[in-house]
Amino acid sequence: MIRSTLRTAAVLAGTLALAVTACSTDDNSASQTDRASESRTTAAEPEQPSTSDRSGTPDDGGGRVLAQVTGRDSIVLTITGVERSASGKSVTVSATLKNTGTKGFFGISAYGGTDTAIKGRMHSLAGATLTDTAHNMRYYVLRDTAGGCLCSTALRALKPGETVPVFAQFAAPPDNVRSVDFLLPTFPNATIPLGAAR
């Protein structure tokens, strides 16, 4: 009788130890998952441009033209502004796209580039780049924490004669870089001036 009681107590003690170990493992796993999730949600966002930077609206009244190139199907890209942010950490390029042809243009998807990790890239300027040829450095369009580009999105087909304002934001080259090449897929390079931060 005593042996039976001792055997039962030993079995109960072993079961209790296993239950405590399982709970401890589950708690550690949940804690690690929470920490991983927290590190993703608290990742630093790219610097947001000011309201005027994000608009990408060109100075149509002044007719300002920093560079102009013609791409596929008579689409003309006119760069109207290049501005460093006050912090000097980013550069915003403002431009217009104009359909100078006689037919509607439906090739906007080419401007999104080939990086499939960018959300909504097919109708955006996500494929644009800046190149500092003096230092052999290339800069890609910045992204937000959701994976979208900091550039014009939701672009649509251009009717004949139609002009739309666009913009794209990049990490800034060093302050001593005074010119860069802007490249949008299907267009030639456009060399544009780059001033210091204001």
TL;DR of this structure?
This protein has 198 residues and is an alpha+beta fold. The termini are far apart. Helix content is 23%, strand content 25%.
Structure write-up:
- With 198 residues, the protein is α+β, with helices and mostly antiparallel strands.
- Helices cover 23% and strands 25% of the residues.
- The protein has 2 helices and 8 strands.
- The protein has a 4-stranded antiparallel beta sheet with strand order 1-2-3-6. A 4-stranded antiparallel beta sheet has the order 5-4-7-8, with no helix packed on it.
- The longest helix has 40 residues, at 2-41.
- The model is unreliable at 2-46 and 48-62 (pLDDT under 50).
Topology:
Elements: H1 2-41, H2 51-55, E1 67-70, E2 75-84, E3 90-99, E4 129-132, E5 137-140, E6 163-171, E7 179-183, E8 190-193
Antiparallel strand pairs: 1-2, 2-3, 3-6, 4-5, 4-7, 7-8
Which percent bin holds the helix content?
10-25%
| Unreliable parts | 2-46, 48-62
Main sheet specs: 4 strands, antiparallel
Shape: globular
N-to-C CA distance:
91 Å
The string of secondary-structure elements, in order, is: HHEEEEEEEE
Give the count of helical stretches: 2
Tell me what portion of residues adopts beta-strand conformation: 25-35%
Please provide the count of β strands. 8
User: Could you report the average pLDDT, rounded to the nearest whole number?
Assistant: 77
Instruction: Determine Rg (CA atoms, Å).
Output: 28 Å
Summing up helix and strand content along with how strands pair, one would put the structural category as alpha+beta
The strands making up the biggest β-sheet line up spatially as 1-2-3-6
